[in-house]
């Protein structure tokens, strides 16, 4: 039992030590606020996509897709239960719609890369790793390889959903819908008229009235300090720069300010009903309809999600042989270059997390009561409730699944499904909050408590329970 406990602690501390390095670098002055923001965004648009592409393309194949069929089933069940528990619990504690989305994202998207891989790698080389041997000829290297393979295959589905649905959960949905509507309107107007309208330098009643609607997203959420930590995370939206900005002052002053800007000539003056009319796909040409569809898809996508789909395409087509055959020309130069860049993603995420936690501790006041409720709700559901759901499901698969899949007899598979179902929230969610400029402080506080306080004891107990189950049942 002592060996199991020591192995679990070693696996969790591997992650926490890298976070501590980020803390030390910030204290020594190597991590400023601007540098950390720049590095985090660079990681999301380059290093993380390299990691996802290399992991998915090298792991996925049609044979594994058929042999590993229980893994997507486990993911679908875990994701569905996480969504249900997060919705029920957040509604029970009285959270508003914005914070329900925050809790849902934190609960649904767990750490499926750095922590599980660190845990299985540590377990494989420990004395307790002999419990995970599948047969008498099994080795520690084989245990680690199978565990990483299961983890990466599970992570494929998590990454696809995280960088699509998860990305939309952690953004301002009202502004998002408005941007899509305005993009469609621009396309529709371009299809109707060949000359520009007078909306560039003029302001309509709709423009003024829509501003309070954008603030509805913040209703019920605590006021934040306008620190550089939050402001620097807001992305630069070129579509917004093109739109007229209204300065809320006295009526005469607003009129004078607006009249000082030139207006473009128009050939027609649109009526109020035309200005507020929603675009219809029936009135668009085929080209503009395709443009609108492409815009909607692009707004739903993200660089890591593009990389994940590209990895699926390469892994399931003959291109995989061209890129991952060791005798091919591309493998030592192009493929290995992508893999090396991907290896930098997880350390950068963890060190940036340490830097972010340090800076928010130095610059922010104690969390307000309205902010504490969603943070601790997410931690409670993710780290406390989910183990009571994931462990019985894994036990049921061991007892009844052996006739359906050989994976039910593999101790490594059962251990990894328990770990993957109960790990803390994904660390790279903080990248999404930084880019979207929403829920950043809440996410940092949640990750601090999850990894700095709750993770070590809970994951230690979790790994101990998983090893005990496979020791007795498998």
Structure description:
One of its GO terms (cellular component) is membrane. This is Auxin efflux carrier. It comes from Circinella minor. InterPro entries: Mem_transp_PIN-like. There is one protein chain. The protein is 72% helix and 0% strand. With 474 residues, it is mostly helical. It has a single domain, classed as Na+/H+ antiporter like fold. The protein contains 22 helices and no strands.
Topology:
Elements: H1 2-27, H2 33-59, H3 62-67, H4 70-92, H5 97-108, H6 114-125, H7 140-169, H8 173-192, H9 205-214, H10 228-231, H11 238-241, H12 251-259, H13 272-275, H14 286-300, H15 303-315, H16 319-324, H17 330-343, H18 345-363, H19 369-400, H20 411-422, H21 429-436, H22 440-473
Short description:
The protein is 72% helix and 0% strand. The longest helix is centred in the C-terminal third of the chain and has 34 residues.
């Amino acid at each position: 039992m002592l060996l199991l406990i020591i192995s679990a602690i070693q696996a969790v501390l591997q992650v926490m030590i890298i976070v501590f390095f980020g803390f030390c670098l910030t204290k020594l002055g190597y991590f400023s606020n601007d540098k950390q923001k720049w590095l985090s965004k660079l990681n999301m648009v380059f290093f993380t996509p390299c990691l996802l592409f290399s992991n998915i393309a090298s792991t996925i194949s049609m044979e594994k897709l058929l042999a590993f069929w229980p893994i997507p089933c486990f993911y679908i069940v875990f994701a569905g239960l996480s969504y249900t528990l997060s919705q029920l619990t957040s509604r029970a504690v009285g959270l508003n719609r914005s914070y329900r989305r925050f809790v849902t994202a934190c609960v649904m998207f767990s750490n499926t890369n750095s922590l599980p891989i660190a845990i299985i790698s540590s377990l494989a080389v420990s004395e307790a790793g002999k419990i995970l041997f599948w047969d008498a000829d099994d080795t520690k290297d084989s245990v680690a390889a199978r565990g990483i393979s299961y983890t990466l295959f599970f992570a494929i589905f998590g990454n696809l959903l995280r960088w699509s649905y998860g990305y939309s959960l952690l953004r301002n949905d009202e502004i998002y819908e408005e941007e899509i509507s305005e993009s469609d309107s621009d396309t529709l107007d371009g299809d109707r008229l060949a000359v520009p309208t007078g909306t560039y330098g003029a302001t309509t009643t709709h423009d003024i009235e829509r501003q309070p609607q954008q603030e509805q997203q913040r209703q019920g959420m605590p006021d934040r300090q306008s620190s550089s930590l939050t402001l620097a995370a807001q992305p630069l939206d070129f579509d917004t720069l093109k739109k007229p900005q209204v300065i809320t002052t006295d009526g005469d002053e607003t009129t004078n300010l607006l009249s000082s800007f030139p207006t473009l000539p128009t050939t027609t003056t649109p009526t109020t009903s035309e200005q507020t009319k929603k675009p219809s796909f029936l009135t668009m040409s085929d080209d503009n309809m395709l443009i609108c569809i492409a815009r909607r898809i692009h707004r739903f996508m993200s660089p890591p999600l593009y990389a994940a789909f590209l990895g699926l395409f390469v892994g399931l087509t003959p291109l995989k042989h061209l890129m991952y055959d060791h005798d091919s020309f591309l493998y030592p130069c192009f493929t290995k270059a992508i893999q090396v860049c991907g290896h930098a993603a997880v350390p950068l995420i963890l060190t940036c997390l340490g830097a972010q936690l340090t800076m928010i501790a130095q610059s922010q006041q104690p969390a307000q009561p309205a902010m504490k409720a969603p943070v601790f709700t997410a931690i409670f559901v993710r780290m406390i409730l989910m183990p009571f759901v994931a462990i019985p499901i894994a036990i049921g698969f061991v007892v009844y699944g052996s006739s359906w899949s050989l994976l039910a007899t593999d101790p490594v598979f059962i251990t990894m499904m328990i770990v993957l179902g109960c790990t803390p929230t994904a660390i790279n969610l903080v990248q999404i909050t930084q880019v979207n400029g929403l829920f950043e402080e809440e996410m940092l506080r949640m990750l601090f408590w999850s990894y700095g306080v709750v993770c070590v004891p809970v994951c230690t107990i979790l790994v101990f329970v998983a090893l005990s189950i496979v020791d007795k049942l498998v």
